[in-house]
User: Fold this.
Amino acid sequence: MGKKVVRLNLWTDASFDRILGASPHAELRVLDLKAPEPSLWEEFSQADIYHVSAAKDEVPPQWQVTRDLIQRCPRLACVSTSGAGYDTVDVPACTEHGILVVNQAGGNAASVAEMAFGLILAVARRIVESDHLLKTASGFTREDLMGHEINGKVLGLVGIGHIGRRAAQLGRAFGMEVLAYDPYLDAAEIQARGARAVALDELLASSDVVSLHCPRNAETANMFGQAAFGAMKRGALFITTARGGIHDEAALYDALAAGHLGGAGLDVWKIEPPPHDHPLLGLGNVVSTFHTAGVSHEGRRNVATIAAEQIALLCAGGTPPRMINPEVLPAFQRRFQA
Assistant:
């Protein structure tokens, strides 16, 4: 009998179930969210690996990986998330209990970077405004919808991991100068990834477009508030395909409403989806999407495939390549083998 892997019956690409179903080392159980809670808890209590959605608003609170869930799941040895993020997982609690956390970093990097540039172009060239006016109004001129080229502008990337590296490539292809701030990488590595390393204050002061590509954690939560937006160039664009909670939505609204920032492209929100009366949704220079940057057919298939292959490798006794808390690996291996 293989290791027991559970996931909730949230949408995932069929490749995940197919790959794990073919593994002799894994026994996959897909749990129905509508099933009675006692029966779900019974399944979770016997699970060795839990594959959980990385989107916090998709997973009911009791099925997110909290200390309570960990205490009720004595066999749990590994948590795998459905993307690069891990908002649904209490990583410190997992680490304390010797539970390995893995993600699927890089699986949807192309999709997310492309969406970031879709937002940049939509805001800079006022594509959504033009579409709306053509469908609802008359009597305006083309010059009323005049936007800006991004060629020759400065792109500032906050984070240059898998997605940021791809964004840097796209920025250079559009003729942009690319700066990056990433405290986990040295200047040589950032240069190798296609950007010039700068401090955050220099990036904010110099960039025509600031695009976020960092995880949300204790270091980045509320990183972009009134001070950060105030430090950006007047007329600059703010783009995020990262995670809600890294930027303060009220402070961003104020910076846009005051005319200090020229526009924003927002794929992520504090609450997803945001309510219809959210102030940012009422601004014409904001292009908004529903955390869909990584939700392309290709991105979802890549992430599901990578996740299933990593779990299958882990069940067969291998070392997974995408660990969030690698310091747990020795303790995990002892528990898992036992």
Summary: The chain has a mean pLDDT of 96.
